[in-house]
């Protein structure tokens, strides 16, 4: 009966490996630069979350890069613009993370910056995500789930319009390279939602936050803008694309509700997305690393028991 015990042990190893390997890297983010200029994405993991494959890199126009994310990961991604390297360090005019290098290495985005925020495998096993203009705006961003399971308010979100040219004069940065939030511009409790304004009943939308909300109805415009700005997808094999400067052809609508520039179109109250082919062919052809690792382990184990 020793061979039966060995088979049971081997089966147990396979189950553990399958669970641990698939759970270790359960999701992915494909980041695409659709802008007519270079963007340097930055990545910051939340407290207790492992760093992703990279925390900062360069994307020329049309380029994509895919990052694997561990189960339960939380953090944010954003785009840095107008970056350069002098004799000592790497800096960016917008979204700079203060590391002095392309890798942000734990540095946060300096406002103003458009943020894509994620909590994977959160409450009820759901992924939570949003695009936030609470820290201001520097470039258009679209977040779209791919391969999502049923359940949750699982839809594309973002801000597709270029707000820099229309930015109010008292929020404008360097003649129009970015647009501050009112909190960043004025620092008052009323705009920053702290102190006596630190709850939804006292901190209300301002004329400044309404500027962002009117242009990008699905994006966070101020701290307590949760009701229309947080999206959820059931866990499982959902992956996410983050596109800088998404083209207007990335979405379509048959709904008269989509009138404002930059609005993500609505169909029966939800957004429709047709840009699933934006990932590069090289990315699509490359199998996820967890399956490569599992296959190698299985081959080793099979040889040991042959």
Automatic annotation (TrEMBL):
Keyword Signal: yes
Stored InterPro entries: Osmotin/thaumatin-like_sf (IPR037176), Thaumatin (IPR001938)
Keyword terms of this UniProt record: Disulfide bond, Signal
Keyword Disulfide bond: yes
Disulfide cross-links: 35-245, 83-92, 97-104, 154-233, 159-216, 167-179, 183-192, 193-203
SMART domains: THN
N-terminal signal peptide: 1-26
Identification of the protein by name: Thaumatin-like protein 1
Species name: Urochloa decumbens
